[in-house]
Sequence to fold (1133 residues):
Amino acid sequence: MSQTSLPIPKSGQTSRVELAINGEDGLALAELAIKLKGNKQPLVIITANAFDAQRLLEEIPYFAPSLSVHLLPDWETLPYDQFSPHPDLISERLTTLYQISQNACDVIIVPLSTALIRLSPKAFLSANTFMLKKGQTLDTEALRLQCAEAGYHHVSQVISHGEFSVRGGLVDLFPMGSALPYRIDLFDNEIETIRTFDVDTQRSLYPVPEIRLLPAREFPLDEAGIALFRGQFREAFEGDPQRAKIYKDVSKGVASGGIEWYLPLFFEQTATFLDYLPTDCLLCLHGDLDHSAQQFWREAQSRYRTLAHDAERPLLTPEKLLIKTEDFFSATHAFTRLSLTTNGKSTGLPALDIERRAEQPLHKLQQYIADFSGRILIAAESLGRRETISQLFSEHGLKPALIETWAEFVNSKEKVMLGVAPLHHGFSAQFAIITEAELYAATVRQQRRREKEKARSTEGMLKDLSELRMDDPVVHEQHGVGRYKGLVNLDFGEGETELLLLEYFGDDKLYVPVSQLFLISRYSGGPPESAPLHRLGSGNWEKAKKKALKQIRDTAAELLNLYAQRASRRGHAFTLSLQDYEAFCEGFPFEETPDQLEAIENVIKDMQSGRPMDRLVCGDVGFGKTEVALRAAFVAVMGGRQVAVLVPTTLLAEQHYNNFKDRFAEWPIKIAEISRFRTAKEQKEALAGLEAGKIDIIIGTHRLIQKDVKFKNLGLVVLDEEHRFGVRQKEQLKALRAEVDILTLTATPIPRTLSMAMEGLREFSIITTPPQKRLSIKTFHTDYSEGIIREAAMREFKRGGQVYFLHNEVATIHSMREKLERILPDARIAVAHGQLRERELEHIMRDFYNQRYNLLLCTTIIETGIDVPTANTIILNKADMFGLAQMHQLRGRVGRSHHQAYAYLLTDADRKITPQAQKRLDAIQLMEDLGAGFHLAMHDLEIRGAGELLGDSQSGEMQEIGFHLYSEMLNHAVKQLKAGKEPDLNAPLGVTTEINLHTPALLPTKYCPDVHERLVIYKRLANCVEDDDLDNMQEELIDRFGLLPEQGEALIACHRLRIAAKAIGVIKIDASDAAIQLQFNPKADIDPMKLINLLQRDKRCRMNGPDKLRVTVGLADIQLRTEFVKTLLKEFT
Fold:
């Protein structure tokens, strides 16, 4: 159906075709591949760049879903980089190479730069691939060895490609090339079942008969591979090989970062991509390959010249790693070839963009449909977009038929059809395809690889903070602060019990049964090393709690008063013109992430509710909080109200002003800025316009909350990074709060704000999904080295980017500048620090933003600075001197675009790093995932800023009892006051039930070997509040570790009884094989008639004191005993 039908050249010949590449080529190649499939002949497409390769990977399967299409992806590293590709990329590469070797591909796509890099020989892949089948005999020790030699890592929990875990009779594996990991269940030494499982929940999904294990690396690290590497290394490089880190690492069996650039040393002979291909395939040379090859070779040679002088890291020449351009093209002559070049013609489509503000937004499209004689397919990017477009078309009299597949369009006779297709550009032939790129030409929506995303649960994220590590300070609700010293097994004469060992002041020890972990929380009122440990039995803990509770009562009353005021006052209920709002949203050039959409919807709902809004939107730097504010501002202004945007710095004010101006450019909305960048006259005019109602949106620093600033009709205040404002300014803001809608944006919530959100006193949204195409920041910790600094900066400069170099000592910053000028003679360096005059600092930052400098040597003054999308490398000198949240904030300065960003943490080799600093450096490297830094920042801020919960006066009490318990007590006090009751200073926070079944209740070490994993499970069981929660936990445990042993069943039974007992006010259950005793809370609301009836009806029951019920019954079987207690508890419900 393509206008240009591509010919199949005769065997061994070359055909040349000119085509509109980036339009019709996807369809033409799909049709060609279908013809070739009939001849059992694969189509191999070598593209000029990675973008075209990715585009064709998306487009060809749409036009021909029956084809098996594979991409051989790039490593996504520069030649001679010191870090390795992501395991998922290696997985995709190995899968494609394996599928090619098995003749299982209809279409193979590869970018030229990838095809030029030498590969491992075909024999390596076949020799290191093995199958596991149901019914097969399996020796777990042999499997361990085989997996390790194939490059798989043994871990306690499998979460990514190339990992495996052996736990007794269960083996978890995540093979390279597999979409999901597998769980193998052994009966003795035979494979009984193989099932896939979910990485997030660790739950089994569905059974499979067999699995294929590809090697986890593209080179061997077994004994033979290491020996060959060592021999060839010594031949290739002169001098002592022991000076080279890579040589020493490989000799120990360690795969260092960047080892891929030494791949030829692992083999007698390497292969090329062309060696893997079947001889009868058709080779399609797509685009200007000659230019791409020369460019790639130039880059590799330039990198080699720059980096080849380090004796500790000798490099192979480009000739040993890459195939020469002329040799590569010469080798392609062995295949039948089709050369596809661009004809430079347009796609034949006129301007069709939708003009949302016009009276007839679709007039261009409607005219084209009327004039065009052929059929038309309009391609939306997603189902949601298809619905939106369909609704818009319907409003303007255009009703295209909806389709699901390309085949439906081909077989239909409808003139205009609307479907979902991953096409980047439209074109016109006998028919026309129109994509969103044409319809929304003014704001081209970014194409993306779609991934299944889940908006994360806010509550779940906050609860994540309660995991415990060895030596962490913890708070026991009844005994105070102690240190966690691990899990221990003790036998009290009734079988082993697992307990948490806590160490208190004076080396006092407390053993807490694992069934009572709900009494334990992680201490976070100050630095862990200075936690105030209590002495057991001294009474100090009770005094501390009472003192804290007195203040908490006043705090809760103050909070409730403020929020009652807000609830009782009627705010403005904004109304919304859906058409205008949709038009404004179209101006957002990216796809919203799921949690960003959720935050936007919640903000709009709040604004329409008629109650004053007070919502906190928390998200990592650069995750789209500003767009939430823009949409809220649009709703407010269209509803006839004014908007004030408060920011902490003048530079941020200017950046927001520019962003707002851009987004509101097509709307009759007047925006002004009050800052030092404006003249006195401009400020005066802005203030007058504000009072007269002529200014709709005002953006500024704390200057906006001074008394001379008067609004005509203020409706919304947007606060950016609230914690950067001073105490006095916060008090002034507090006065505003009860009157207008408040939207607070923050990357690092202060604990006060976080706590209020947790207590439900403030609405809360979290954005944790990174924007499309945003890559996680690669983070490296290394010794200070001029070579590393040069490499990092040159990589950035080469792609036209900018670098932050952080040196946090003003006294030595100028001598650091001299060093950098010597290392990087071509760099344009600016210096910024806090001792500069503010205007001078702003001038430097502005020039850096406008790319007059490409390296900014600065102090932490940039911690909350402006966005510089072209700055994607940050180097932190003496990184061990920074705090965790601070490092996270600073690292967030880079990675504001779709480019890979890099963070280098440099430390002095001759200065000893403290254990705490090492932990911080390790943590920040582990937290490369985008959005994961939210946890880091909150954890660090809890420790650093707990005193900010409601002001400094409480910080002493909070430090004494811990942030977590303080928050719980505040929550309890708020609930009591809401219910009209006075908080009881002596009452426990909630009814806690102690259960003793006189039998071991634990997860045995053999069942779940990992101590930390057991602790997490115990904590999760302790947090279960309903039987359904326990059912889910039980299913998960059986799924992950096998059937529960007796001790595990007893543990679950304890928690079931705890949940049932709590509901009726039973605080202790003692169930032995001779008698059962229940102890009631003196304040339990129990119907006395039910108790009397029971005592009269059952002679085995009697009261043992005023609050204890004893039942004399002999039940040796633990299950029968548990069932009896459950039935007994039901008597009181």
Observations:
- The CA atoms of residues 705 and 732 lie 7 Å apart.
- The longest helix spans residues 540-568.
- The two ends are 73 Å apart (CA to CA).
